[in-house]
Amino acid sequence: MSEENKTKKLFLLDAMALIYRAYYALNKNPRINSKGLNTSAILGFANTLYDLIKKENPTHIGVAFDTQAPTVRHDDYIHYKANREAMPEDLSASIPYIKALIEAFNIPILFVEGYEADDVIGTLVKKAEEHGFETYMMTPDKDFGQLVSEKSFIYKPAKFGNSAEVWGVNEVCERFGVKRPEQVIDILGLWGDAADNIPGIPGIGEVTAKKLLEDFDNIENLIENCKDIKNPKLKEKVEKFGHQAIMSKQLATIILDVPIDFKEDDLKISEPNKEYLKELLEELEFRAFASRVFTDLGLKNESTETKSQFDTTPIPSGSYQTDLFAVYENPTISEETKIEENTEKKNIYNTKHNYSLVDSEEKRKNLIQNLIKQKVVCFDTETTGLDIINSKLVGISFSYKVGEAYFVLIPEEDDAAKEIINEFVPFFANPDIEKVGQNIKFDISILKQYGIEIKGKIFDTMIAHYLIQPDMRHGMDVLAEIYLNYQTVKIESLIGKKGKDQLNMRHADTELLKEYACEDADITLQLMHVFKPLLKENDTTALFEKIEIPLIQVLSSMECEGVKIDIKALQDYSIQLETEIKELETKIFELAGTEFNIASPKQMGEILFNRLHIVEKAKLTKTKQYATGEEILSKLVNKHPIIQEILDYRSLTKLKSTYVDSLPSLVNNKTGRIHCSYNQAVAATGRLSSNNPNLQNIPIRTEKGREIRKAFVPRNEDYVLLSSDYSQVELRIIAEFSKDEDMIAAFVNNIDIHTATAAKVYGITIEEVTKDMRRNAKTVNFGIIYGISAFGLADRLNIPRKEAAQIIEQYFAKYPTIKEYMNSTIEFAKANGFVQTIMDRKRYLRDINSNNAIVRGFAERNAINAPIQGSAADMIKIAMVDIFAEFEKQNLKSRMIMQVHDELVFDVHKTEIEIVKSIVSDKMKNAIKMLVPIEIEMNIGENWLVAH
């Protein structure tokens, strides 16, 4: 057949759907390479892509991605995809590699800002049909059924060793129970889609939806003729929620007029960029995959002849894991998932060990005598849960020799438990014994509930690895696999999978529990022996021993202490907000001249632009509805009084549901306080984060949001809250790093830095600076930290991009040393592979020399930001450690109770106000000695709002 007559086969891949599928397919046995990178999604996608090319021989191919920009569906429905969980951190780290892999295969990446990958694919499918293509949409997503035709098909990737499925018109109609593929959107409109937070009609499932479409053909006809529905309850549902079905159908409809050109030649398949592909596969350690690809290409691949210190082959679960992504008709085990003879991972069944159950007084006595003779002992607690206040000890494991460990069973009855735990005080209180743990903060906090304090040197393997590889995961299971080639016992084997039927450790089989607990202590001890020299090699031992390890006790104290919440204040505020929301609702209806569903963007648009005619040419979404998102409405505030009322209504409803009504549920019944958890090994920059609740998210920008802080109160009337917040600490650190004389002078002379910046950039005196100029300068000052672009600045300031570019250009012209610092930091990163903070905290940037401009740009922005963010983190951590030590030394009643961004909050006894002020001021200002003066803002009050 001539090239001219050859069938043109276009494959369009739904990137994120395939990537998520690959990631979760290997989630139980993730592939981790020697750098700690989870390569499951990358390898899965690589196999999918390459197998597709080999088996199906496409003539044309493209891969479509979503973008981070809000889409037209978000304009239509503010809750669209609102309940989606954030992408797992290790999956997010995989995306740049996957894009680089696609580029290495010389395959175009397709995306359009403001549209989803579905819409890009849908538009190209219809254009391809016009150009005579046979088109295949490679995706597991059912939504694409609406696009299927005689020329376009869904190509569902293979799974569990089965062949790929191709769905044409007949398959789609049979699967959805419809007469034609176009009705798929009607089915989805009735069902809804929980994954995308599309509501549909509550109570209507698959069977009912199919029956309704049989009778009424489409949703519009169903609603118009709902009087003909014989079932009264079903009729009521359609009448009540018909508008939701219409909206859901519109949300599920794939847009077919995305502004993207169909360039046939660009989509034509071609040979990979062999050198780039080889370099990338070597970096990812895909030796078997590389061998397969380069054998097919007729090239020798030297990287397959040597092995890394750490093998990246996954663990089989019971039997060999078949290739979940193969598309061969005869399923085989993929080369990449075979277990090589000499690389089988160790586990509790094939590794010699001596784990003992300590279940008598005599055995405990012998164990304690041995423990107190040791210089280093690892211990680990097993508990009934993860709540440090309410959970009970089930047992404690100890290990001081590799392959040997002991498990002490703790009874359920409190007095008996305390009696046994107290027997181990000579060990826990001995300052000469180094205690080792994995996330030892939890163990310390649990033991505090039994009156046990841990004394002496501490080594935490989780924190150690966090400093060695801050961007990677730090769980013991992963660390054991990477550094010890060992697969640990999974907790699910003891107590079952998460859910209502999961047991707690108290009900686990004693023998299994002993093996599990002893293994934890044994493996953690082994990891310590690996990490101690690595800390030294990385020059992070001082950071580990002087900042991060002392901070563990500080955070444990804060978590156990908690902060008191005035539940009644929140309940009263909830009632107040509900009243205000009702009042706003009434005002909105009055201004609209009719009642309508305020939560419906469609109805909102019709009221604003058809009924009230607020603007002549209102912006439309791509589904031809009026855009009513916050960004749109904010620009129309002066057009009609209803706009501000609507914005206020949306703001208050979110505030009430997300914060005011949710916080009381986090209050511990035993203490009457919230006990949040501080995460010391999450943010790669060194910053602390928190959860249950996430204190960083407590609103502060609006007056209504700030009211929530009133509910954070002192423990009793003898105490007050004291807040101390670093002032512009990141800008002061930039000044310190860049040694910019003008910026340093502004801070030394206590001149407002944003006003000073505006004066220099605009070439005027300080007295001539306007509020808008200062606002622009402030945005630039803080934007520099994150490598802001002219596009980003224009968007934030709502000014033309040309003007934004001029502001940035003028900024660097007036502050040349800052530009020099940024350039030199990037050069340092390229030469060394990392950047570091004032206290030598390192952030490794493996992509800093990437051939991919997008990937490299991201790394360069991190190179600029990480030393600044990280130094601010170092500073507040040192201050926390020093303040805590001084409080302990002076035996104060006052306590540090919260850390939020650059702010510390204290519960201060009224008799100690002045001494606490003095200690906090001194330790925060002098945590790190710099040329630039460090300033704080300190206040006291009867609640957090007043104190802040």
Architecture overview:
Strand 10 and strand 11 (404-409) form a beta hairpin. The N and C termini lie far apart (77 Å). The protein has four domains: 9-252, Rossmann fold (3-Layer(aba) Sandwich), CATH 3.40.50.1010; 354-494 and 501-556, Nucleotidyltransferase, domain 5; 565-674, Up-down Bundle (Taq DNA Polymerase, Chain T, domain 4); 683-688 and 701-740 and 837-844 and 852-948, Alpha-Beta Plaits. The protein is globular. With 948 residues, it is of the alpha/beta class. The longest helix has 37 residues, at 853-889. The strands form seven sheets. The chain has a six-stranded mixed sheet with strand order 3-2-1-4-5-6.
Largest sheet: 6 strands, mixed
Q: Which regions contain 5 or more consecutive residues with pLDDT less than 50?
A: 74-84, 301-343
Radius of gyration: 31 Å
Q: Give the CATH architecture of the largest domain.
A: 3-Layer(aba) Sandwich
The strand order across the widest sheet is: 3-2-1-4-5-6
Structural class: alpha/beta
Using the coordinates above, name the CATH class of the largest domain: Alpha Beta
According to CATH, what is the topology of the largest domain? Rossmann fold
Percent helix: 40-55%
How many domains in all?
4
